[in-house]
Amino acid sequence: MRHNTSEMSAQAELAEPFAECDAGRLERLLVAHFQPVWRMLRRLGVDVASVDDEAQQVFVIAAEKLHLIEEGKERAFLFGTVYRVAANSRRSRGRKREDSDSEAMDIMRDPTPHQDELLGQKRRRQILDEVLEQLPFDQRTVLVLSELEGMSRSEIAAVLDLSEGTVASRQRLAKQHFLRLAARFQARLGAGAVK
Amino acid sequence: MTNWDEAVAPEVERFAEALLDSATADAPSDAAFRRTAAVLGLGSLLGSGALLVSGAARASSGMFAKVGATTVATSQGSAAAAGSTLVLAKWAGTGLLVGITTVGVSQAVFPRDPASELSAPVVLMSPSVQAPALSVRRLHGRAFSHAPPEVAAAAPSQAPSELEVEAVVPAVRAESRSSAQLRSQANAKSASENHVADVVSASLASVESLHLSAPAGEGVGGLGKDAHAGAGPSRSHGMVEKSAGVGLPVAQAAFAAPPKSVGNAFAPTDGLQEEVRLVDALRAAVVRRDEWSLWALLTKYDREHPRGELRAEVAAIRARALSGSR
């Protein structure tokens, strides 16, 4: 789907609700966090077709509540919003998840055709998503925030509004689960799957 | 490196690490960023292609955390792009001017048709002109200020190559009149070398008096002997004096011509003999019906003998060639 400049300008003109907010701060927020937000949405299971829209939704929410966000806590706010947006997206996905699961099973059942592609990062990312898909969403979120976004337990606790103990527990369980799933994938794909 | 808190096989751990590392390179498209910026009313980010491209390219290395630096880099990139365009246009214009100048100078310095130069007569004397005078002509379009109007009008078409002393003959000076007559006779038929030498002597005397009217450094006297010492045959062929053995100090200083070529150049029948050879070749080409040679020879004759003695004969050959008859 292509959007030319005129369409974007028209969209910008329609963005009346955000006209009164701090444009400079919003701009900095978008530039600094758009990629992490987008990436986290993908790792939390939002599919490629809708990840752009969901990322946009996250920043729309942030713009609406920008005056409520404390300075220095923008990331926590955004990631908390990402968590909720991704959860809603997962709930509304339904059938697509089943397709994804069946695709994952196809990879495990018939790994041979993909042997030559396994060195590609895109292929590894696809396997990662399949592994994460099989984690419970709570564990998946903690694993993504800690291992991919590099957040500390306290930061994760603040984002998810959880105690640090709960975060630590979910983190431990998530790692164990992830390793078992990775071992299964590796066994199916062969020893030379990833070098 | 992730602390897995669990004893796992090294290969499984490497596999798990590789999977997690693969996520760092995942990045959104520029279009997604622009759309979001548009929705938020951040028009300043819409046209910042450099920001979006470089941002996407460096996102995996944490570039998005440097908001201020990115914005500055974006504006600098846009300014640099605009400046580059101006500089490019400026240099293109300069290069065009230099090219035009170079071509013009090269055409002026180097003759277009070396062949015609090589065979150019030493002294272009027209029998129809009554009295000689010398005009110092340098390159195209110079001088002719001393030539009669008809000569001045006709002369540029001859495309002179270099500095050459041309005897054009207005009825100016009584002292030159007799020499001009002698010179015409010599050029037309069979004047002796002594007569030619006298003509040259008289003509060069005129040159000596006239070259001062030429701009400094461009007249005859402005060119030293050394300046033409290594000159090609065209220049030396056109200049006469030294080998003629008539003692012409001005000409000696100005044009150091090889004796051999000079002697041939002043042979009075040389031009006519050349004309005769050309006419014979023309007739042969007509007989052979060799149109290519015919028109090449006609062109050569027109170029080398615009006032030739055998123009009438050549005109007849041309007419026959045009009519298709032998």
Our Rg estimate of chain B from Cα atoms comes to 39 Å
**H and E order of chain B:** HHHHHEHEHHHHHHHHHH
How many DSSP-defined strands of chain A? 0
Rg of chain A (CA only): 19 Å
Mean pLDDT of chain B: 57
Q: Which shape of chain A, going by the Cα principal axes?
A: globular
Q: Runs of chain A with pLDDT <50, length 5+? A: 101-105
Oligomer: heterodimer
- Unreliable stretches of chain B, pLDDT < 50, 5 or more residues? 49-83, 116-180, 188-193, 206-268
* Strand adjacency order, main sheet of chain B: 1-2
Overall structural class of chain B, as computed from helix and strand content, comes to mainly alpha
Q: Please tell me what the overall shape of chain B is.
A: rod-shaped
Protein model, in words:
The complex is a heterodimer of chains A (195) and B (326). Chain A has 195 residues and is mostly helical. Chain A has helices spanning 5-14, 23-43, 48-64, 74-93, 95-109, 121-133, 137-148, 153-160, 164-189. Mean pLDDT of chain A is 79; it is low at 101-105. Chain B is mainly alpha-helical and 326 residues long. Chain B has 16 helices and two strands. In chain B, helix 14 (270-288) runs parallel beside helix 16 (311-323). Chain B starts with 9 loop residues before the first helix and ends with a helix. The chains are: A mainly alpha (195), B mainly alpha (326). Chains A and B meet through helix 1, helix 2, helix 3, helix 6 and helix 9 of A and helix 1, helix 2, helix 3 and helix 4 of B.
